[in-house]
Amino acid sequence: MAVRKLLVTLEDYSEAGRYTCEVTSNIAGPAKTSDIQAQAITISPTSHVFAIGDKQVFTCASYGHTVMSASPTVQWKKNGNLINSSENIYQTAENTFGDKLVRNLFITLQHISEAGEYSCEVPSASGSGVYLMRNMQVQVAANVSTSPAAPIVEFGVQQIFICTSYGFPIPQITWKRGKNNVTATVNIYQTLQEPTPIPNKVIRKLYITLW
Question: How many Cβ atoms from other residues are within 10 Å of residue 86's Cβ?
Fold first, then answer.
């Protein structure tokens, strides 16, 4: 029994594809072969920071799929679920360039709920139910507002200020006076950050009583 190993470290995506092991012997007859498939998958860009209304195209490319996989499918997902196409989020048909399969995802961000983890999946050429997957993140730049906008604080009357922010990942709010964090005293203190019913939107309150 003879063994010969092939070690493959893909340094370029052109190196993906079909590799064949061929065996010959002194016995008459054709050579015996066995194939393996080296696959690779990429996403570009791997993340993007959106503001509401921004547009971006993401490209998923699968390399080395065509020989052993009869009908490979590049599929975009969000949080592990298939993407249902809409006017602002949709994926194109697959395009084949040699042994490279490409599918684009178009996103025009209209709601913060559309931010999150997106992934691209391609079935393995082995046909064993294994999928190759790459992830990318759609982020939303933090937006901040405070209320009331122009308060008048009267002596002896407690005033509540609310800082509201949304974004993905979820922003962290801290009240400051000048460059320093507000230190809790009897008459001035901030609450813990609180979630709101709206995903990725948080608030933090500051209480002030002038004595």
Answer: 10
Nearest to 62, CA basis, from 71, 73, 70, 47 = 73
Helix (H, G, I), strand (E, B) or coil at 50: strand
Q: 13-21+33-141 falls under which CATH superfamily?
A: Immunoglobulins (2.60.40.10)
Other Cβ atoms closer than 10 A to 36: 13
Are 27 and 73 within 8 A, CB to CB?
Answer: no
Residue 41 region by backbone torsions, left for phi larger than 0, else alpha for psi between -120 and 50, else beta: beta
Note the pLDDT tens digit of each residue in 114-169: 998 999 988 776 666 667 788 999 999 899 999 987 777 788 889 999 999 999 99
Q: Are 181 and 175 in contact (CB under 8 A)?
A: yes
Where in the chain are all domains bearing CATH 2.60.40.10?
13-21+33-141
Phi-psi region of 167 (alpha: psi -120 to 50; beta: other; left: phi over 0): left
DSSP 182: P
pTM equals 0.70
What is the rounded distance in angstroms from the CA atom of residue 89 to the CA atom of residue 197? 24
Which tokens sit at 48?
Answer: 């993007």
Q: pLDDT tens across 89-113, in order? A: 999 988 888 778 899 999 999 988 8
Q: Which residue from 139, 61, 135, 64 is spatially nearest to 104, judged by alpha carbons?
A: 61
